[in-house]
Amino acid sequence: MTGAMDGHAEDRGRVYQASGDQHISEHHHYGDEAATPSGPDSVRRPAVGRPPAVLRDRFEVLERLRAGVREGRGGEAYVLYGMGGCGKTAVAYTFFQLAVDECGRVGLWVSASDRASLRAGMLAVAADRGAGDGELLAARNGLRPAADLVWQYLDRSAEPWLLVLDNADQPEILRDGSWLRTSPRGTVVVTTRRSAARWWPGAELQHIGVLPREDAAQVLRDLAPHSGTQEEAAEIAERLGRLPLALTLAGGFLSQQVLDPWTMETYGRHLDEGERVELIDQGADALSGEDPRHLVGLTWQLTLDAFEARGLPEAATLLRLLARLAPEPLPLSLLNHADISDVLPRARCETALRALLDQSLTELVDIGVRCAQSHGVLLDSVAAATPVEKVPLLNTTAVRLLDAAVPGLPDAGPYDPLLRLLVPHALALLRRIDDPPTLADALAVANRLSVALHRTGDYLSAWETARAAADLSERRLGAEHRLVLATRSRAGRALFRLGRYTEAELLLERVRAAQERLFGANDPDTLDSGHGLQLVLGNLGRRDDALSLLRSTIVGRRTTLGPTHPLTLRSRSSLLVLLSASEVVTEEDGTLLHLPSECVRFLGPDHTVTLGARHNRAWALYLLGLFDEADQEIQLVTEAYRRRFGPDYPIALSAQQLLSRTQAALGHVDAGIELMTDVVARRERGLGPDHPFTVASRQLLSAFTSGQWRPPGA
């Protein structure tokens, strides 16, 4: 990603840091709002929808945890482990409130269920503890270690804190990047299904199991006090394995019966008549030979039967639709779409959702975006018991709803936290679907989601999404399926933006070779990979190879897409930073320098490709010694980038750095020094003092201040 605008000594690198490899067919205006990094708004409040009214039988655990947040204590890490549905999150929630209300701790709550959620939540923690926008932006873009930044600010925190990492059922996510650490300034609590000590070195492990008989019975009576005696409740609790999730579902059901209320005895009779839904609690370690998890399925099935009897079949359908997705916050806007009518009338979706909420089958969580969230064990159970004939329509509907939520033509713009929320659901769909045509449709959506993440600068999430989507789909579609290869190519483009050039080169070369063999040299997918590969080669210093590949890509895109297509214009724009001053005036019969005016005519003045072409033209003019023209051009581009992306965005700083050169070349050295001083300060904050971009900027500033800098041709 190092480029000419980053101050290469010979001024011969690449410039298009943020949007140089983008597929743009339409521009979406983002207004004047700066692209400040954002994340979940919920780090100061637990992302749970309906906390327990009373926490039963967890007092000993809570006392052990409370000892870790007493005044003067710090550096402890606790791991609450147990099977799905045993109430680990409820314990963490109650402890969180105690730590905040009674012990004066700053409470911080992060979902650790997937990589994107963990990273976004932890960066929000860093912001809460004082990290600046530039630092956060660089961490999100993969330009500095995100975990190091977070823990740097946690260690510096003026206030003691409690950090909860909830649903860490894939502990390898925490290990990769070293997200789980300790600090004398705070206490860490992890909830997980994984109990193996190797995952949690140095932490104190606490098993959260099922409830004792009397406490389990009291949970039922807390929720449905008029449904039966303590002994009747105890009998039902035993038959539900005393699992808190099953008890909550049963109690919620009993409390909501109005016209024909059920007693505990009636509920027990229906339990006898029902069929057990077997369930494997995915990801959990084996805890005991007598596992009550299968009873969750029986519990919710009684609730769905009651929905049917009350004329609410849509509630059952909505729950089965939710079970195609992930047990993570799902934006409610996704459900409020016309395509849901394929499985249930859109007008009945509100009623169906309220019914699920009433029965505790799902809950509302507000993480800056209003979402619905259901327990993973419940969703797995529902998915396993969904009638096979209903699955195809549910899958296609879920794909269409996600498709509608992802931008149809992703463009460069501010970071959008809504996109991150969609990632686990897109990947869950790929895991659920076996039908190849539907799987291909779901992969196309996941690939476009990766593109959208990429174009907002969230390169790590873009890479992880593309890589995981390709891996999940390859098992059914094959390694040489067009969409699998396209998604692998997208992963390669993200690796390039992360500065992992060698990996990006190997992946893109392999993908491009397969695409050329299968689809032809001028196929759009082959050309797309070729454009991405030439960016990598240019940054690896293989200028001639990059130029040869870029020229063949331009010819192919002219032939296949036409001369005015945004991708054709984008590839031609790249020539402006690969060619030398003598070459640029002869390329395309001397017309290449007029490319921005072509872009304005065919795409409009504010199109991403137009802005990039003007940026690259300013560099070419600077190399040619046409400093006045270069200065006018780059001033306009710099202002446009700052409005659209914010002052800390890499491409905005790249443009500002070129502006410092043109100002100095015009004799305004003091102005150039002022501009470069700002660039260096922002890059040191965002990237650290030793990043190559920062080093190059500091060298240019030093050349200005020492009087050793000379403009091209001097």
Automatic annotation (TrEMBL):
InterPro entries in alphabetical order: NLR-like, P-loop_NTPase, TPR-like_helical_dom_sf
Signal peptide extent: none
GO MF entries: ADP binding
Region (Disordered) residue spans: 30-50
Coiled-coil blocks: none
PANTHER family reported for this sequence: AAA+ ATPASE DOMAIN-CONTAINING PROTEIN-RELATED, ATP/GTP-BINDING PROTEIN-RELATED
Protein name as catalogued: ATP/GTP-binding protein
Organism lineage: Bacteria, Bacillati, Actinomycetota, Actinomycetes, Kitasatosporales
